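4.2 Preliminary Data

To establish feasibility before requesting continued support, the project team ran the inverse folding procedure on a target of 68 residues. The structure was first converted into the token representation described in Section 3, and no sequence information of any kind was made available to the design step. The complete token record follows.
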């Protein structure tokens, strides 16, 4: 194979890492965001609204309609 015909489906970088190592790195980022004050913490109202929207989206996907 030439360089142009390389297998592009091979996983590289973060995607190629062991899932446990990926979680460790992501966890470090989350902790850093909380320490710096940049992490968003949902209020119960925001969480309720997000759950409602997710439920509507899932229902819309299953039923095949685009109703709001």
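Position-by-position output of the design step:
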């Amino acid at each position: 194979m030439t360089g142009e015909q390389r297998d592009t489906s091979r996983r590289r970088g973060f995607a190629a890492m062991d899932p446990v190592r990926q979680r460790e790195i992501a966890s470090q980022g989350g902790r850093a965001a909380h320490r710096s004050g940049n992490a968003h913490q949902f209020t119960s109202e925001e969480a309720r609204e997000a759950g409602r929207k997710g439920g509507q989206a899932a229902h819309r996907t299953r039923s095949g309609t685009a109703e709001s």
